[in-house]
Structure formats: C-alpha cells, structure tokens
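Hey, resending since the last one bounced:
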Amino acid sequence: MQTTTVRPFRFAVQATKAKSAAQWRDLARKVEDLGFSTLFTADHYLGPGPASREASQVPQHLAPIAAMATAAAVTHTLRVGCRVFCVDYHVPAVLAKEAATIDLLSDGRLEFGIGGGWSEPEYRAMGLDFAPAPQRVTKLEEVVAFVKAHWSGQELDTKGQFVNVTGYAGLPLPAQRPHPPIMIGGGRKRVLSLAAREADIVSINNVPFQPVNSDGLSPREEATRRLGYVREAAGDRFGAFDIESSPYFTEVTHDRQAAVDRVAKLMRVPSEGLLDHPNVLVGSAEEIAERLQERREQLGVNYVTVQQSQIDSFAPIAARLSGH
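The structure tokens again:
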C-alpha cells in the first residue's frame, strides 16, 4: 500500500536517561545543535524496585513537565514534548494549563502528546486503577476535546463521564493557534481512528516482534493494517498530519546481520525478517536513509523518533533528510 501524500521528514530524540540538571541542559542544547526537530521525554514515574522490573521500565529520574520547560528555556528553536502523557496520571484541567504555559513560555514550541495508558504494573504501583481499555479510550477522547476547549479561551462547560470542568475560561492562551500540535499515540483501531480525526501528529505504537501475530500478520503487515485504520478514519484529512513512529532498535553500522542478531537475542525471536521490522532500523547511513524513504512511501511515517543513545550516529541521517 502506498500513501497518496508524502510529508517532509522530521526527526526527534526521546531521552529519559539524564540524572542531573547539567546533563539535561547539555542534552537539550546538543539535540538542537545537531538539527533534530524535537526533544521528547516520557511520562513514567517508577524508581528502582520490583514494580519497575515487573513493568520492564528503566527508572526515569526527571518528571516530564519540569524537564520540558527546562529544555525549552535553554534552547531557541528546539520543540519539546512528552511521548506521551498518560490521561490517568494527570488532572486534565491542570495538565491543560501546564501545557499551555509551556507553549507560551517557549514562544510556541510545545508538541502535546497524549495517550490512554498501557502499563498496568505502573498504574498498580502508583495506586491507580487500570480500567479496561474501552474506558481508558473514552477518557482519552474526553481529554482531547477538553484541552482543545481549554486552549480556545472560551468559557468552559465540559460535562462527561471523566472530565467535568465548568465556569471559567482557560488561561493562558497558548502561543500556537488554534492550539499546540496534538500527538495521539496508540496501536488499536479506536485510538488510531481518534488520532486520525483529531490529532496533528498520529503516533503509531511499536508493533509486536513475533514473526506472525494472532491475526496471522507479520509485523510489516500489522503496520500496514494500522495505517489503513488511520487512512479510513481520516478521510480528507489524510495527508494533513504527520505520522510518527520510533524505530526503537536503531544502529548505524556496516554489519547489519550482527545488529539484527542482537535484536533477535534481546527480543527472543528469530532474526529472519527483522531487518524489515518497522521498529528496527539498522545498516549504513545510506541504507537507513533509503529504508526511511521506502517506509514513508509504504507506511506513511515521516516523523521519526530515535532514542537518546543514537543521537550522534543518527544526526547525519537526520540532517540529510529533514525537510525533504
């Protein structure tokens, strides 16, 4: 399947490893200097312990809102965001105001990522109920509608199952109008359909690493199916938004097979076919650039987020393709 509209490439870095103010400030400046569009953090809270091990999460020192504000304060053009805020970890009215404040104070450099939540062990460790997926998605729908209303400057009168906010107008108005770009992330049809209708950036979650999933689809076929959900729900909007994804396993190398074998060992799957997995990107800089262009044509992904460990090796590829 090919897309009908090709949007220019953008590149982001997702960074969760800084442990000090100096590390974070230096990282933000470096990401900007190397020409990446955006610095993302993540919305996770568990420190070391059995809960983080159960959740398979490396402990993250910095909370996202303060980290985003700091990154914006020490840079000039770098966009900042969280990939992605979990609707259940934040009071919607507070999150909307915090986000608008970051956008205002950064002169319009916020990208607002939001999702329905997924880590049941993290929920449980923080004392939160992990509701069934349909309920979490309903809340996500309400929060997306609410933040748009909050950022409009009109008096709020939001009454829903999860969001009930009335009697005042949201302040401050964000610098970006009508609102900062909203990124909605997910992997299922309902969430991707919501993103296709409402988001400025559709973030497609990692696809499974099993050679064939429960529906008989390879990882590449599953990614194609998800693009189909987006295309169907978007209608005439298709092509008007970025499609974002992360090749979590990225390695610039001349020994592709060794890199693929390392991914296979880590994920406990056969190495056959992994070179074509949507979340694996290995090879020389030239090969990776060609593969990204092929995936943009076939899977729609023009906004690519790499991990903090790949900043230096990936920067020349980002410089070559950004804006094209």
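The radius of gyration is 19 Å.

Sorry for the duplicate.
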